[in-house]
Design brief:
Elements: H1 3-18, H2 27-44, H3 48-57, H4 69-82, H5 87-98, H6 111-122, H7 126-139, H8 154-160, H9 172-197
Helix pairs in contact: 1-3, 2-3, 2-6, 3-5, 3-6, 5-6, 6-9, 7-8
Bound molecules: nickel (II) ion (NI).
Length: 198
């Protein structure tokens, strides 16, 4: 299988897993992360196939989305073998997705991993990031906001995580994209609190 065919097969595989997700980690999240990661990969001179493949599969086996992460990762590796990915490619893809998650607080070891982390973080901010934050909060029973709660609300999540992401980007290409999305979130929050207390 050629590179394009492999990526098409991976996209179908990912669609089967995430098509019904209502927590902000649906197929279109994977699609945006893959597209953004691909664009950054070209600018940064990274391996485009490894970056895109890793971006597509980066949420497979995430503990907050899966009941059996290890089994899901094993199934993924078997699938990648079945579409003619080499052992080396599978290792590189695994390495790239290993430390993507914000909660682990790590910087991925490879440039492809750092790009996937940036692309995933870019999808957590801006207009789409705002929509995903409230979808995730709703799916997990969180309040929108509460005047006397300092944790566990969707709006608090902007302060705990989202407003920090611009400063945590690994590549300069990602920082450029983050600037505008960051400003949009700040203006959104200003308007939110005006209406909330007005
Ligand atoms: Ni993600």
């Amino acid at each position: 299988m050629g590179t394009e065919e492999k990526l098409a097969a991976i996209r179908e595989y990912v669609a089967g897993i995430f098509e019904n997700d209502a927590t902000g980690h649906d197929f279109f999240h994977m699609k945006r992360v893959a597209r953004t990661a691909g664009e950054i990969s070209v600018k940064e001179g990274a391996d485009l196939f490894i970056t895109e493949a890793a971006a597509w599969v980066h949420d497979i086996g995430d503990a907050k989305l899966s009941t059996d992460p290890a089994a899901e990762v094993e199934r993924l590796h078997k699938f990648l073998h079945s579409i003619d990915c080499t052992t080396e490619e599978i290792q590189k893809i695994s390495e790239a997705v290993k430390n993507v998650s914000f909660s682990k607080g790590s910087v991925p070891a490879t440039v492809e991993g750092r790009i996937v982390q940036d692309a995933d973080r870019l999808d957590a901010i801006g207009a789409v990031g705002i929509a995903r934050t409230f979808a995730y909060g709703g799916a997990n029973g969180q309040l929108i906001w509460h005047n006397s709660h300092t944790s566990g609300t969707s709006v608090q999540h902007f302060y705990d995580k989202l407003l920090k992401l611009k400063g945590l980007m690994n590549t300069s290409s990602a920082v450029e994209i983050a600037e505008e999305r960051h400003k949009f979130m700040e203006s959104y929050l200003n308007q939110f609190f005006e209406e909330w207390s007005g």
